[in-house]
Amino acid sequence: MNLLVTGAWKSALECIDAIKYRGHSVVYLQHEQDEVPSKYSWVEGVIGNRIFLTHPIERFTHLKFVQLTGAGYDHIPMSYIKKNNIKIYNASGVYSIPMAEYAVCGTLQLYKRCVISIKNKVSHKWDKNRNLQELDGKNVAIVGCGSVGTGMC
Questions:
Q1: Which residues, in sequence order, are bridge partners of residue 45?
Q2: Closest listed residue to residue 140, CA positions, set 112, 113, 101
Q3: Which of 16, 17, 23, 63 is the most buried (most CB within 10 A)?
Q4: Pairwise CA distance, residues 151 & 40, whole Å
Q5: What is the overall mean pLDDT for the chain?
Q6: Angle of helix 114-122 relative to helix 96-111, nearest 10 degrees?
């Protein structure tokens, strides 16, 4: 398969040799908005994320396969994908742990009143805030059935 691999896949350069070893031909495009380094008709598969925002999918006349590097399909012309029987896969769950950790981070920011501390730092005000709460002895729950809600179980 002739693959266009983009820099939206963070580890792409580390994996290209392994992809070639499995019999695929690969061209690499660091920035998806840049010019595609091959003819559009050469590309049979794309590993990327937002390439179709700057390169209309209709130009890829032999496209059979799309692997997204993100979870969402909101920037993909799904009607065209379905109409042309193009296989598409996303990276569902790729952000589960980082988002769950971000939720815990937000909880800590509230408990430690980070906004006040940052404002004080900017204004060179070194007041001690005695109203800070601690998480010690408490539970923090991220509620949800999806991959974020179960990401830190």
A1: 3, 65
A2: 101
A3: 63
A4: 38
A5: 90
A6: 70
pLDDT score, position 151: 60
Kindly provide the b/e burial profile for residues 24-49, where b requires at least 16 CB atoms within 10 angstroms of the residue's own CB. eebbebeebeeebeeebebbbbbbbb
What is the model's pLDDT at position 56? 98
Q: Which residue has the tokens 């296989």?
A: 87
Task: Read off the pLDDT of residues 126-150 as tens digits, 9 standing for 90 and up.
Answer: 888 888 888 889 887 777 767 777 7
Q: Which helix (H) or strand (E) holds 65?
A: strand 65-68
Tally of CB atoms within 10 A around 103 = 18
User: Cα separations (Å) of 37 from 25, 47, 145?
Assistant: 13, 14, 42
Per-residue pLDDT, 10: 85
CA-CA distance, 142 to 151, in Å (whole number)? 9
Chain length of the chain: 153
